[in-house]
């Protein structure tokens, strides 16, 4: 294999009695303003092409590859003679001509290069971490560090107690018994029947006064003599 640089230069004007430079591809004179120089030869821009995909090598890069009497672009050279690898995320084959992402010694498909915890796709400028041979975003990496630190250095029990807010129980559950409730109307009736005497200020035992009496005087809630 041989790698050669491709350079684009302005064709020199032939002097008196000189012929234009000849293209190594078509063997015709180069009359255009610009020409390509590769393999120590001169080429028309349209004549220096990849022997497989026919792309113009002056447009796809500044390097060409030659092997087995073929002039190739980088993609086709790697496809024909390059070594394949395996994606560290999906474990599938990566063709030699594909663009890849690298993290240390790991190689990834472009679509597989994402956080292996939350599947976040990285953008230019994003930080990522290689932890236990897994790609992690910054958030998941820091979260893993926090849990790892808690596993190796658990906080004391008193610290945990301070972190847990106290829980207040309802009054009827305190000390395991219900508080004493105020007496109801039924209790008052029972007390009245038990003692035999109405409480002071009550209207028990008074005769009902008809409507005519209500018109003649105000209704009194006091005890009568």
Automatic annotation (TrEMBL):
The species this protein was found in: Phaedon cochleariae (Mustard beetle)
Pfam families with a match to the protein in the record: LIM (PF00412)
Keyword terms: LIM domain, Metal-binding, Repeat, Zinc
Protein name: LIM zinc-binding domain-containing protein
Compositional bias segments (type: Polar residues): 186-196
Classification lineage: Eukaryota, Metazoa, Ecdysozoa, Arthropoda, Hexapoda
Gene Ontology CC entries for this record: nucleus
Top-rank taxon: Eukaryota
Positions of region (Disordered): 1-21, 169-225
SMART domains noted in UniProt: LIM
GO biological process: positive regulation of transcription by RNA polymerase II
PANTHER family: BEADEX, ISOFORM D, LD11652P
Domain named LIM zinc-binding: residues: 21-83, 85-147
GO molecular function, one term: metal ion binding
UniProt xrefs under InterPro entries: LMO_RBTN_TF, Znf_LIM
Keyword Repeat on entry: yes
UniProt keyword Ligase, yes or no: no
């Amino acid at each position: 294999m041989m790698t050669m640089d491709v350079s684009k230069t302005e064709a020199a004007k032939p002097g008196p009695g000189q012929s234009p430079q000849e293209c190594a591809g078509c063997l015709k004179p180069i009359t255009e303003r610009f020409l390509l120089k590769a393999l120590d030869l001169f080429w028309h821009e349209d004549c220096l092409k990849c022997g497989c995909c026919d792309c113009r090598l002056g447009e796809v890069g500044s390097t060409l590859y030659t092997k087995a009497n073929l002039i190739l672009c980088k993609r086709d050279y790697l496809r024909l003679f390059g070594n394949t690898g395996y994606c560290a995320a999906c474990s599938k084959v990566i063709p030699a001509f594909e663009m890849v992402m690298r993290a240390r010694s790991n190689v990834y498909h472009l679509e597989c290069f994402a956080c292996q915890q939350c599947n976040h796709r990285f953008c230019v400028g994003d930080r990522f971490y290689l932890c236990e041979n897994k790609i992690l975003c910054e958030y998941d990496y820091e979260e893993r560090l926090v849990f790892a630190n808690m596993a190796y250095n658990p906080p004391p029990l008193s610290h945990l107690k301070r972190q847990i807010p106290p829980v207040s129980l309802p009054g009827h559950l305190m000390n395991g018994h219900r508080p004493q409730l105020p007496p109801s109307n039924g209790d008052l009736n029972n007390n009245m029947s038990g003692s035999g005497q109405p409480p002071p200020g009550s209207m028990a035992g008074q005769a009902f006064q008809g409507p005519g009496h209500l018109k003649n005087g105000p209704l009194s809630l006091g005890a009568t003599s």
